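Milestone M4 deliverable, item 7.
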Amino acid sequence: MAKDVDAVARRKARVRRSIRARAFGRPRLSVFRSSEQIYAQIIDDENGVTIVSASTLEKANREALKTGANKEAAHIVGKQLAERAVAKGVTEVVFDRGAYIYHGRVQALAEGAREGGLQF
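Output delivered:
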C-alpha cells in the first residue's frame, strides 16, 4: 500500500514540476476530485494565494445537481470557476491535473473552464 501512495505522490510532484517550468508567471488551475465531489481553484504561486475557487459542495451546486460525481457537475464547476476568474481579471492559466489522467471528470472540468473564457 505504501508503494502506491509513493507512486501517486511522485506522479503529482512530476506533473507540478513540469507545470511550474512552463507557467511563466501564469496562475495555476488545480483540480482535486474525490469519489463524490470535485473541487478546483486558481492559485497564484508567486504570492501563494488562491485567487478563485469552485466546487460541487457550494450550496447552489448542491441544490441544483443530483450528484457531484459526474461529468455534468464537473463541467458546471469548470464554467463557474472560469466566470469568477474572468471577473477577477484572470484569463490565462496553466492546467494542473494533479495525479489524475486527463479523462472523464477532469476533462469535463477543463472543457467547462474553456467555455467560461479561460485559456490554457
